[in-house]
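Give me the fold.
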Amino acid sequence: MNIEGAVALVTGANRGIGKAFTSALVERGAKTVYAGARDPRTVGGPGVVPIELDVTNPAAIAAAARTCADVTLLVNNAGVVRGGPLVGAPGLDGAREEIEVNYFGTLAVTRAFAPVLAANGGGVIVNMLSVLSFLSFPAIGSYCASKAAAWSLTNGVRVELAEQGTLVVAVHAGYVDTDMAARVTGPKLAPAVVVAHALDAVEAGTEEVLVDPVSQQTKQALPRDLELLYPDVRSQWANHPLRAATAATGSAEPAA
């Protein structure tokens, strides 16, 4: 697909990677760039059309599909991270929200816009994933699980929508310099770099993007992940402050 002349919808467009997507799409000559956010007042700029869109709200998704019936490029970017271990978190609320937004939200928007893309010639879906789709680190274990689910979703949707001519692109990257990774110390990718790789893939017809060496090396290690990846994860977890919460028998919500 050529970005020039495309009609795009970006979810979670009010900041970070989503905002970088809207800017880059305008710069590359997209005809229309719909910027979806729960509060449309938080998005804007030259060439950008604000759209009210909460990916957990079926009515809002249906309304967006009606309003944006000319979309040829869907960017599923909306996501949340609440942090916390799988066992040591005080409850399941954070994990539920991550699955609700990162998995079910992506699925719901994809289901609503698949017929729109089909009617407009097939088009492209870009799903913003993560290196943590491939690897689970206990301190944010529930977030990792939601991204792994979204990766599996992406692979399944790609097969389902192939017949209608829809390209489905998975984008994996390490830490990106956004509010979501504000507490992370160490190297981070600029959002514009991630977006450039993603849009290059759209134009080249590439199904998977491994943006940085971290995502590339992690994906390569998957056939031997228990041997090559998880010893280091266990070593980091052994000294992590949240480990004590998991070890405390009363900290986790009891099984029903």
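The chain has a mean pLDDT of 91.
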